[in-house]
Amino acid sequence: MTYHEAFISERAARACAVAAQFCDQVDAEARFPHETLRALKDERLLSIMIPRDLGGEAAALADVAEVCAMLGQNCASAGMVFAMHQIKTATLVTHGVESEWHRTFMRRIAEAQLLLASATTEGGGIGGNMRNSICAVEIDCDRFTLQKEASVISYAKEADAIMVTARRSPQAPASDQVMAVALKHQYVLDQTGSWNTLGMRGTCSEGFVLTCDARAEQIFPKPFAEIAAQSMLATAHILWSSLWYGIAAGAVQRAQSFVRAEARKKPGVAPLGAVRLAQTVSLLSLMKSGIAAATSRFESAKRANDELNSMGFAIEMNNLKVSASQLLNEIVREAMMICGIMGYRNDSPYSLGRQVRDAMSAPLMINNDRISANSASLLLAHRIDARLAG
Amino acid sequence: MRGPDVLRGRSSPLNATIKMLLARTGRLAVDVNLLADDQDLYSAGLTSFATVQLMLALEEAFDVEFPERMLNRRTFASIGAIEACVSEISGAREAAA
Known about the structure:
The complex is a heterodimer of chains A (390) and B (97). Chain A has 390 residues and is of the alpha+beta class.
């Protein structure tokens, strides 16, 4: 571990202590994890990925992934807010460094530890297919206006800026999209939907009509299709999976403490859950190696644009999301089997109810069936690489 | 930028077949015949799903297989880019025969 990595994880550990303290309250009240976000800002963790010359720390994606995993063990909602913020930051870092407005904005994020949200989901039948838009930006001289029926904007009311997708112009086809940054004073939110869910209750992913009026230079120069392929797809799936790994690891740790306590109570007798624990630990390491492999594939693909835009790369990132979300659910269920009624209870030190409920969101956020259908289409073209070291 | 082929009044058989297949599978928002050879197909509405359908149609029509290295966004970015790739694959096959 480098000095910088150790420094980041020390700061993250302090924020995690706050997350652990408030996680049950956030879950019970379905409220935003204010205290944890305050701690993340105080530790200046919201800007770690931003380049050094713009006030950040130029942290690698793996370092950000580590923070997501740490938060996942303590408060998955706060971890998801942090992950989503970093996915937006990755877009700025990848596609905004050559635009003066976006550079200035990155400096402000670092200075004031601004929180970024995103409005990529739209009502009116578009649903979770973020690669299509109904709404369009209308450019008039140096300004643009936009109204979006956003069926979901996570933590919209807490964010300092929202990154929003829309068609390039009112004449453009649904798939010809751009992405723009809108600052808090440049938009109005009219709430249309609430967030009362089984798990991930603190992300406050409510519905809104978003109306904004901002400067035209706040629109990213690159089409959204390229932003999605080159930064969002990989960072979203890697950071989500890392957070999910944290939830899974936390559940397995709880199951292990349970088995060890049983072993202490009856020396010489193997506890009932011991074998299942061993099998669950192997699932956890499978999950971990999948994330590590996808992260290193992304780091090497970043050096070659064609590779980032290739079907093979998209399929690999899709595979990570689908497999990590399934493994997470398998692991938390196994952890509950190991802890038995003590895991099922909401009032025991081995309680796993929140972890199970949070985990259930994973296959649904960008539905695994939608992702598999996308991979199925790509696999009509892409040939499977049978090499072991590929 | 060159003008649309209908205005320039010339088009190779390869170019014409590509356009016909693009019209059939591309689900574009505009008439294929009004597109210049170097015009961006993604901004004309080409999606990743339609790209795969177009690739399959091209493979069937020209009896070729797109190699893995061509399966990226750039290959299908314009009619001209597709034409260059199909020529390259067919050329390589003829040279090997």
